[in-house]
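Structure (tokenized):
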């Protein structure tokens, strides 16, 4: 496992680790597959979490624990999308906008979760290098993956909010490859958001209580 944390190469004076590079390339591929609404997005995201878990396990317990949660949500997403295959009329899930109730629940979960995780990281400094931004990114990622599992267009907005903090935080803490990947995430998010937004307008929508007009 230590070999995962060896240096792959140097880019613009930044040391790129094998674990950081491999895990984030898979994460980027998973996001691209999510844009295409491919069921493979979830196994790829799981593999990304597994590599980063192996890299962190034993010396960065908090980071390893976060990847374990990511893998669990990836499993949930696979189950949800497998159940919903074909709802879009093209063999894939049908994107939809969240109801106002769902939006409120996700915002509340993100706020409460960020505070709770940040306080945990603050109480145990070994779990995180920067408690509050790290908690924000971690909880935001979980919320985004949950919204993706439910086929909600809002999942792209959640990823965009994560990117706004993730890019500078990763560069500041020496994870340059993660920073570069988050920049590419931003471009994919904008294209994916447009695609899902348009598809949600063409897909038949279920009658959900509290749905926006």
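Design, position by position:
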């Amino acid at each position: 496992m230590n070999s995962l944390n060896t240096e792959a190469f140097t880019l613009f004076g930044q040391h790129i680790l094998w674990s950081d590079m491999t895990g984030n390339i898979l994460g980027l591929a998973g996001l691209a597959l999510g844009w295409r609404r491919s069921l493979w997005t979830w196994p790829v995201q799981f593999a990304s979490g597994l590599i980063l878990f192996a890299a962190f396990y034993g010396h960065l317990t908090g980071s390893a624990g976060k990847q374990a949660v990511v893998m669990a949500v990836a499993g949930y997403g696979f189950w949800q999308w497998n159940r919903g295959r074909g709802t879009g009329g093209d063999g894939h899930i049908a994107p939809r906008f969240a109801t106002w109730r769902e939006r409120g629940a996700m915002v509340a979960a993100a706020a409460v979760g960020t505070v709770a995780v940040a306080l945990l990281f603050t109480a145990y400094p070994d779990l995180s290098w920067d408690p509050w931004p790290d908690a924000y990114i971690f909880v935001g990622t979980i919320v985004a993956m949950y919204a993706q599992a439910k086929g909600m267009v809002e999942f792209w907005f959640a990823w965009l909010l994560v990117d706004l903090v993730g890019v500078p935080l990763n560069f500041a803490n020496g994870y340059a490859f993660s920073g570069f990947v988050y920049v590419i995430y931003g471009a994919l998010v904008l294209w994916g958001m447009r695609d899902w937004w348009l598809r949600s307008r063409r897909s038949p929508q279920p009658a959900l209580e509290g749905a926006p007009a």
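Reviewer-requested clarification: The helical segments are 18-35, 41-56, 61-84, 100-123, 131-149, 154-172, 176-202. Residues 205-213 have pLDDT under 50 and may be disordered.
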